[in-house]
Write a structure and sequence with these properties.
elongated, mainly alpha, 0% strand, single chain
């Protein structure tokens, strides 16, 4: 339908104007093209419909309207409807922009559902992220590990994916082999009450040392258990255990008994496994050369640490002189 802007000049006798406008009138003014002034009523109805639609969108999409881009588009749509009511734009243009606005609201809602909801939004988001990013499938209860990791779940998945990518580079494994390896990490994480990320971090450190798959699996379990039991982070646990193994030339079978002894000293004296391990990293090589066993050196470090509370590194360095 053709749209027109009409400017009409009407001269009315002032003495009759009041009486004239108090009577009901159906005013029809014909213009070129056959469009009548009755179209004004249709215009007002259309404008009202558009305005009501905008308000319904705002009421039914509260979360989306917390987004500044959506609020800005809402203001633009109000202005566009106003421009249509003044004859400054076409209804087709308004409808086209309204469609875009509705699509943007839909996308915003999808984004909100992907990142956060009060019940399971983050769990759902991570499920989608894992399916898109990771090469493996792990149970969400294991991959989250703790409430803190649940809150930071998206970053956790990214970190885990990067770690498995690094593992693939170091080992040269195929995607299928990496997927199988990640499943093994997840199983171990459940077994020792750790997270898959902690297990994967420890494994990568052992792999970088050139350990075989079998050696890595055994050492990984040992370092993860040491980290959990001694309240150490995985990197510190792996570093300390590496130093002890290399310094005392321990076999794989001797690693777990060594950890048990350190934990036992931790439980019975006023020192920690972390402190004993830190001191051992400074003295293990010299201790081995001096024919002082791991058990003897760990016991001496424990006594000094418990009685003096000197920094572990200082205790280790004093024994190495």
């Amino acid at each position: 339908m053709t749209e027109y802007n009409i400017l009409a000049r009407v001269k009315i006798d002032g003495t009759e104007a009041d009486a004239y406008f108090k009577k009901p009138r159906n005013l029809t003014v014909k213009v070129d093209g056959g469009t009548s002034a009755n179209e004004l009523g249709k215009l007002n109805t259309t404008v009202g419909t558009l305005q009501n639609k905008l308000e319904r969108l705002k009421i039914s999409n509260v979360d989306a309207f917390r987004s500044q881009p959506i609020l800005d588009q809402y203001t633009n749509m109000q202005n566009l409807v106003g421009a249509y009511s003044r004859g400054e734009t076409s209804l087709g243009n308004v409808n086209m922009e309204m469609g875009r606005f509705e699509n943007n609201i839909k996308k915003s809602n999808e984004g909100i559902r992907t990142t956060t909801t009060s019940v399971d939004g983050l769990g759902t988001a991570l499920g989608k992220a894992i399916s898109k990013i990771a090469l493996w499938a792990v149970a969400t209860t294991a991959i989250y590990g703790s409430l803190k990791q649940l809150q930071e779940g998206t970053q956790y998945v990214k970190d885990l994916n990067k770690l498995m990518t690094d593992t693939q580079i170091v080992t040269g494994y195929t995607k299928a082999e990496i997927a199988s390896l990640a499943t093994q990490y997840n199983d171990l994480a459940i077994e020792v009450s750790a997270t898959t990320l902690e297990v994967a971090t420890g494994a990568l450190e052992w792999q970088r040392q050139g350990k075989t798959v079998e050696e890595t699996n055994q050492l990984l379990k040992a370092s993860v258990m040491m980290a959990k039991l001694a309240n150490m982070d995985q990197a510190s646990s792996t570093e300390a255990l590496t130093s002890i193994i290399n310094g005392y030339q321990l076999s794989i079978e001797e690693v777990m008994p060594a950890i048990d002894r350190l934990i036992s000293l931790d439980n019975n004296f006023a020192t920690s496994t972390q402190e004993i391990a830190d001191a051992l990293t400074k003295v293990s090589a010299v201790s081995k050369q001096s024919n002082v066993s791991l058990e003897e050196m760990a016991a001496m470090i424990t006594v000094v640490s418990s009685d003096t509370r000197i920094a572990a590194e200082s205790i280790g360095q004093s024994f190495s002189r």
